[in-house]
Amino acid sequence: MMNREDILVGIGGEGGITDNGTILPNVGGYLPIIEQGLSTAGGCRYREAIPPGQGGRLDVDTNYGIRRQYLPQGERHYVPLKQRTAQEVLVETLSKGPTTILLLGAQTNLGILLLSHPELKKNIEHIYMMGGGVHSSNPTGCCPVGSGLSCIPAQCGNVGNLFSALPTNPWAEFNVFTDPFASYQSFFLWDSFASAVTISGMLTGHDPNMNKYAVIYPKNITVITSDKPYGINDGSNPFFANRATPKFHLQKGGVHSGHVQTGIQDPFCLVLDGKGTCMDGYTKEVQNGGALIQVALLPKPNRDTNSTLKIQFYADYINDLNLPKQTARFNFESEFQHFKKIFYHPNLSKKVLGKPLIFDMDMSPGDFITLFYLLKTPVELINLTAITVTTNGWANPAAIDIVYDMLHMMGRDDIPVGLGSYFALNQSFPSFPSNGDCKYSQAIPLGSGGLLDSDTLFGLARELPRSPRRYTAQNSVKFGAPRTTDHPELRQPLANEVLLNVFSSLNSKAGVTILSSGPLTNIATLLLANSSLHTKIKELYIVGGSIAGQGNLYTIPKNTKAEFNFFLDPEAALVVLKSQINITLIPLDVTGKIPLSAAYLDILEKHEKTAEFEFVHKLLSTSWMLHSEGGPYNFTQYLLGDPLAAAVLVNPENIKTTFNEEKITVESTGDISTDGWTRVDKAGVPIRYVSSVDKEAYELHLAAVLNSPTQTAVVPSFASQKKQWGKR
User: Fold this and answer.
1) pLDDT attached to residue 196
2) 8 A C-beta contact, residue 342 and residue 465
3) Which 8-state DSSP code applies to residue 531?
4) What does the pLDDT look like over 421-460, one tens digit per residue?
5) Could you tell me which residues come within 8 angstroms of residue 606 by beta carbon, excluding any fewer than 6 positions away?
6) How far is CA 592 from CA 384, 551, 583, 693, in A?
């Protein structure tokens, strides 16, 4: 947009830190240093302070829904194995000479660089960091004047801004709290470290007295990385727990050796009717032992005393944004001469519609192949009525926009999409339900082969046409929002609403079929809130479980028998199995026997015709190529397992499906080494499951359905969309 395709962008990396503290190349920065092992899967002691949904990562990942409406789509984008890593970009840039660094988030990337490349410190000219709270007095949550005893102040006056963790830690600021140990490395390697407005500082030779926007004073500061008493071993501190030699050779009994906050509900930090005691991430002023840094304590007032903008930065920021130089080339809509929002709704009035189906998906790459299959199945057989997405599975909530794009491609903008729960059952915090534990979702890698690739479909999602529908943060008081926004009609519906609307609109005797290919959270939540609704579900097909007891939880080695979907919410799986619904299980025993092969890709190569077939072919080819590279991509050859469930539902005879029945139960005790196990049990629930299919027949059937000329793409790709709109 800003005509700067020359600027390097680095993200992630698959390097790790060994148990003895050796930092391997290209550590990705997905996890704080204290939790970084050899993969990008890990805990969330600090990250759980950030809500994953609205008001948190969902709104940030979508820029509150504005990004897709406004920002143009450039030619550069994430490509697996070709994307420059954060460490590569840092090392390359700093190796060229003196460089100023601006930090606007967690300092993990820089902390790792300093630990692994101390020789590059000499090339860091200055660091500007937004973060920490030294003498701040947070005004959020204060009671209005005259409110009396009716108002109870929340975080009013606290140094920090961890609104989700006030009972345990009222001291820390988010950017430092997300990786205190990394922040400590940054603070203690520089004599001068100003938290101020970067450009003004650079233009004035980093002279704090000349800064245009901030009143800056030197302060002796330290970063609290653990809590007193130091030298204890309560299992909370991975740098010291069960180690003869501390990691990174840290000092026994030193400032890093105390209790480390284990989460925002850590009982160690709670004080009944008192202030939380944990200070992890607190930038504390000290008399001795700290680092002398420059701290911006106050914004400077506007020199124009007649202006309604009382702060100089506000006035200059507005003016600078409107300067004609270095301005944007275009936004998403103005880029095209004939841009037009078009909604495609098929005319089904003369069709005899088949069985109504709800697809409950967790937006993994395999789920999108399933979605294509269902959209290609004649509506006379299957009437895809609604989609619900679980957001505690293999993709972040913002991936819902890919669902909208795929529906738009296939001309089905009429199908509602509901956004589900962000946590497994009973994993959100009762006192702060927008936040919760990652006890089960921590099994999913954050980087390659995990959320990074699911959220982008291995970089291919950008090839889909851009839907006029998207997630937005629009809302209304009617649905629990604090205020009604400008366009509440654009509000993102929730999964429960969509499900209830479908049930109320359909013939009560006919019932609805549900296909679930992710954690069963949405369905269990519905059943727990409406105990009689199981009678409206005619049949339920579930991708999940493992009858033989062979699991696929490769990121949690101590759990050898769980399958991912059941593990990600074992309590939900148990609730659904006991619900008296007519269930067909498509377990790992059969989905794990249909890996991708070079031979199958050769077959697809010879039959490429429809746009949807072409996209699936690219997706599978990319997945196979990545699998051949190994490492984090070892398990990407199993994308055909998810659409198998749709084929079993629609046409079991064509793929020679055999069924068996067993009484089964699911382990859900809170022990992650056994949770999610599917056990054959005489006291369990009788469940029909798929025991075998003909692999070759299934592969040919899938290809034939995707290549069928009926119900084909209306808008084949983003490239075709651009041609239709005409570039200026």
Assistant:
1) 38
2) no
3) G
4) 999 999 999 989 999 999 999 999 999 999 999 999 999 9
5) none
6) 26, 10, 20, 12
